[in-house]
Amino acid sequence: MIVDDEPLAIELMTSHVDKIDQLELIATANNPIEAIGLLKDHQIDLLFLDIQMPVLTGIELVKALQNRPDVIFTTAYREYAVESYELDVVDYLMKPITFVRFVQSVNKYIDKKSDHSKEDKNNTSTSESDSIYVNVNRRYVKVIFEDINYIESVKDYIHIHTINDTVVTKETISNFETKLPSKFLRIHRSFIVNRAKITAFTSHDIEIGTKEIPIGGSYRDEVLNKLK
Question: Residue 16: which of 96, 108, 120 has the closest Cα?
Answer without folding.
Answer: 96
